[in-house]
Amino acid sequence: MSKGYENTIDIKPSKRQLDWAQNDYYGMVSFSMGTFTGKQVGDGYAVPDTFAPEDIDTDEWAKLASKSGMSGLLITAKSYDGFCIWQTESTDYSVKNSSWMNGGGDVVGMLAESCRKYGLKFGINMTVWDRHEPAFRQGNGYNGIFKKQIEELLTNYGELFEVRIDDACGENMTFEFDYKGVFTLIRKLQPNAVISYCGPDVRWVGNDRGFTRKEEWSVIPAYYRRNEDGTLNAPSKKTKSNEMILDLGSRKAVKRDSEFVWYPCEVNVNMRDHAFYLKDDNYSVKTKDKLHRLYLSTIGSNSAFLLNISPDKRGHIFDTDSQILTSFGHDLKVMFGYNLLKESSVSASSFVSELYSADNIISDDTERFWRAGANDKKPELIIKLNGKDMFDKVVIREHIANGQHVEKFKVFVLNSGKWTLFGKGTVIGNKCIIANKPAETDSIKIVFEKYRGFIEISSVIIN
């Protein structure tokens, strides 16, 4: 069998992965026992009555997420302390046994309804580690308990776009977690949802600080992924993809490998220093400028951006967080709301046929794309604007339904009859954003200097 990057050329996403890729900026809500104990990793001994929100407003959470530009929200339904914030039959450690709403409260159900109200997709985050449940330490029936919880969450709250299974654990597990059984159950109950973090669809970047790789490939060696049956292909010398290995997909990284999978990256970041609300974290709320940088370094580098927000003990978002997120959402509309390309003409150095001409990159139809000719070693796109205009961002998307191929490209602007460099990039994948100081021109050229197999570009946006 041949080895190296040639084998990556025909690797494509599944339908669910392709649909998920349209949700490149979404949020996660951390609101549970840790909000009230102040412990990010609780011990599982706080009594249920400790969970006592005064004035919870999940509509506020969903409305803010929508205003900030998010496409959806996940909820951490159970964290490491084992406390469940929905009406579960699997354990007595839940809102069902708290005084809040006389034991009838259901945070998961409330947020699911709020997401529908504000047009957001909804998802679930679950931790495997459970510091309350004795069966976890004894290895006696915990898999059955966990699958019961998954069944409840995936049955009672409508369609989910993502199920995030966090298998990080701070103690030795005395049993073998049933990945296969959990994955099979998710596929049965929510076939359109991606399974992320440790699942077979979407991988964790490897840190929660927003640190990203220089090149983020969606096509990586198969041994980095946990399979549908829960097994790992990694030889003993290999590490998992959720460790921060700096190079997963370059030609150098894959030159000795022969089997590859489509395994895109999700970058999770807390709005504050910690996941659960702490008053002492009020100073650490990320500024709007920091969110801008994170947006460009994640979404702009072929990754999804998952931002965790932390309601306070009242069940409200702290004013500072709310104001920053609202302003950030406004800026996103201004920054990406208008495409100069819509009033431009486009030509290319080559195309395989009229069906795949350069004009397709202007279309809103995601099924249309430009494909360069087979013998074009350095394909070019030439964009002629409708008169001189100013821009500071170029957003490029590959037609990832047919894979990821671009390795190196440059963007030029025409000034005084000469092409000058505006910016350059490496991988594109789902989306690459090249941002620089504003440039004024009437002509833009994109040169694709290195690629694998062929090039297919679905859209270019000039802002």
Features:
single chain, 463 residues, alpha/beta, eight-stranded parallel beta sheet, seven-stranded antiparallel beta sheet, 17 strands
Task: Reconstruct the topology from this structure.
Layout: H1 15-20, E1 25-29, H2 33-37, H3 58-67, E2 72-78, H4 107-117, E3 121-127, H5 134-138, H6 142-155, E4 162-166, H7 179-189, E5 194-197, E6 203-204, E7 219-221, H8 251-254, E8 260-262, E9 265-270, H9 288-298, E10 303-309, H10 319-336, E11 345-348, E12 370-371, E13 380-398, E14 406-415, E15 418-425, E16 432-451, E17 456-462
Parallel strand pairs: 1-2, 1-10, 2-3, 3-4, 4-5, 6-9, 9-10
Antiparallel strand pairs: 7-8, 11-13, 12-17, 13-16, 13-17, 14-15, 14-16
Helix pairs in contact: 3-4, 3-10, 6-7
How would you characterize the overall build of this protein?
With 463 residues, the chain is of the alpha/beta class. Helices cover 21% and strands 26% of the residues. The strands form 3 sheets. Strands 5-4-3-2-1-10-9-6 form an 8-stranded parallel β-sheet. Strands 11, 12, 13, 14, 15, 16 and 17 form a 7-stranded antiparallel β-sheet that branches. Helix 9 links the parallel strand 9 (265-270) and strand 10. It starts with 14 loop residues before the first helix and ends with a strand. The mean pLDDT is 95.
